[in-house]
Structure formats: C-alpha cells, structure tokens
Known about the structure:
By secondary structure, this protein is mainly α.
Amino acid sequence: xxxxxxxxxxxxxxxxxxxxxxxxxxxxxxxxxxxxxxxxxxxxxxxxxxxxxxxxxxxxxxxxxxxxxxxxxxxxxxxxxxxxxxxxxxxxxxxxxxxxxxxxxxxxxxxxxxxxxxxxxxxxxxxxxxxxxxxxxxxxxxxxxxxxxxxxxxxxxxxxxxxxxxxxxxxxxxxxxxxxx
Length: 181
Ligand code: HEM
C-alpha cells in the first residue's frame, strides 16, 4: 500500500516576501549609491597593480563561477547528460557572491551610482539589480510550494545580471585598458 501524499499546492504567494526583500535591497543600494559622497578609495589592490585590475579579475572569477552555476543547475534538473553533485552548485554560487562583495563595496563606496556614461549607468543599475535578485533567490530557496519556474527564473536573472556586470566592467577594462594584473 503506497501512501498518497496530497499534491503540494503551488502558488506565487510564498514568493512575495522574497521578492519584496529583494526589491528593497535593490532600491537601498541605488539610493545609497546616489546619496553617499563617493570617497574615491575603498580597499587596497591586494597584490594587483591597482583597484581597477583587481576588480576586473575578481569579477571575472565570479563570472566563471556563475557559468559553473548554470551548468550544475542544468545537471541538477536533468537537462544535460552529466551528473554534477549539488554541492558544486551551492559552493560555486557562494564563492561567486563572495568574490563580488569587495568589488561592489569599492564600486558603491569609492565611486557611487554614476549615470554620465551609458555603459556605467547600465553597470550601476545591474549591480543593484544583481544583489536584489540574489537576495530574493536566497530567501525563496527554503520556501515550500514555490511555482516550478521560480528558482530557475531567479537563478537565470542573477546569472544574466552578472554577465551584464562583467561585460560593462571587466570586458570593457580588458579591451579598453588591457589585460593587466
Ligand atoms: C552595487 C552596485 C554597483 C554600482 C553602483 C557600481 C558602479 C560602478 C562604477 C560607477 C564604476 C566605474 C566605471 C567607470 O568609470 O569605468 C564601476 C566599476 C567597476 N565595477 Fe561596479 N558597480 C556596482 C556593482 C558591481 C558588481 C556587483 C561588480 C562585480 C560583480 C562590479 C564590477 C566592477 C568592475 C570590475 C569595475 C572596474 C571596471 C570599470 O571601471 O568599469 N560592480 N562600478
């Protein structure tokens, strides 16, 4: 006799609080980025020749880990033929986030949210959006009864934001300034 468990009712309601919190984080970073007087300095270059190359390489590290995230997520959902342990997805996500923090701290504290150049405006907005989506995904993860599309969509948005951040910063730096340490 197999036990029949009632079908878990799925609705978007459990998503409301994570989305609200994510939205608040995004707006708070944007408001801080505009109201705070940029200091021009935040953290030492840690062995790099300056803050810019340090940020460009840390962001590239986060970008590569984000690709590992997507491939390991596709494996978790059985979309690709290779089996990658779920721990790879978890740890690549944590490391990508950790690598982004000193970079974003420098961006917000030393530079602020700038909108004089379209590349920098898009970059600044994507930076706030990235942390908003990341917050929403982390808060949604433990919730039960989420719609099946919720985590893939939040994960996909976080990845897209990080790709956009890399293109509007590291890729620009490596092509405009050069591939330097
Ligand atoms: C949280 C909101 C963020 C704001 C407001 C912001 C803003 C900025 C600004 C104004 C610059 C200078 C752009 C220039 O003049 O060239 C910059 C540079 C940079 N940012 Fe951000 N950023 C944010 C988040 C991030 C994040 C999350 C990353 C990486 C994960 C990142 C990576 C970089 C890198 C690598 C540079 C140096 C290359 C460059 O100058 O474009 N930023 N950021």
